[in-house]
Predict the 3D structure of the following.
Amino acid sequence: MKFEDKLVVVSGTAGILGEAVARAFHECGATVIGIDVVEHRAPFRSFELDLLDLTETKKVIDSLGSIDILANIAGGFTMGETVAETTDETWDYMMNLNVRTMLNLVRAVVPVMRESNNGGRIVNVGAHGALHGSALMGSYVAAKSVVIRTTESLAAELKQDRINVNCVLPSIIDTPRNRQDMPNADHSKWVSPEALARVVLFLSSADAEPIHGAALPVTGLV
């Protein structure tokens, strides 16, 4: 896949998956703009930005000019309380980290894509586990479910503008943190960040032009 003439915005580039996605686009010739709430080194231009601040997010996006691809990778997981014991802090943390960051970038990027009239691609990260409820994961599952439904709604709204919106649904990603938390698991069955990044690149490519509103499971052998 080639992206030499594309400007790509990737969120969460200080994290394992975000870094893998940004690196994959960079290696395929794209001009990559990385965004994260923490400062980080990267072989591409990056911004230290709190995506919960819509005003600052719009300011950064508006400074970039035309945008071809948005990869909403920022997000995260935490085990929670039971649903009946869920605190406001846990609920807000999962919704802000997984939903609000995505929503604010969408609200900033979509007007830019529409104004350029060149179409575009948006790829979000849901979760395979969000297809059903799980004990002690209510806040996380709810947040990632919102990502999936928002992806579908946004795709229906933007397809006539030739802007494709899809999401990936990973299971367990092979990261150092997950290996530490599950040392006895068969890590060979998990999805590597690099493999998941290739799926994100496919959904961002010309080959994915007919695909709108897909929630694509990427589960490896789990």
